[in-house]
Design brief:
With about 240 residues, the chain is an alpha+beta fold. The chain contains 5 helices and 14 strands.
Amino acid sequence: MSRWFISENENVRGPFSSDEVRAMLTDGQISQSTMVWGKPQTSWVDVNKWVSLLPQLSKLQGPIEDSAQQQPWHYAVNGNSVGPLTRAELVNELKTIAEKDQILVWTKGMKAWADLFEFQDLLEEMGLNRREHPRASIHGSAIIRIDDKTLIGQLKTISPGGVGIDQLDSRLAIGEVVSIEIKSDELGDPVNMKAVVQYSTQAGYYGFKAQSLSMDAKSHIISYMKQKLRETDRVAA
């Protein structure tokens, strides 16, 4: 029975059977830093620890997995909610919905439903076209300040609506409001925004929704996104 999810470089895949995960590890298709999750685990663990725990987890997982209430994802369209679903089931169902700008998504740990387009990793799994749903990839760093803490992460995506940041050196809670200084050679001048933590993944990827952004900064980001789109079109041609 397929039951396990794996996470590498902010990408979550699955579900897989125990044998499939072990085979991928043996064949070198996944690294030893790969994280694994499945019920009844309370958190993600690295694959080597998962292997050592597997005999115990397998005994516990069967009856729990059969309970739909243990599945983590829900979505809503026009006031009608669907779930719980596995991540794979969520992606497959969202692909079939035409009104994607009407989709809200929720998973455990989030304080409120969020727009689908705040979940860049889900968009990529769904294969949505960047021209239709723009958010540009970008390389650089993000300096995040909250209270007396300063965190540094790797900048992954950007739009006037927010940013995606990976590899933070500390955890943030959903709903926390932060100040972000964005630095990238691709963007040129630094950009500052006030943002709220919209969601996070166990792999350490964070989606931030912009709360305040100056008109100059917004114009700068839009210009960058248009340039990236032109570059993508030239490559495709």
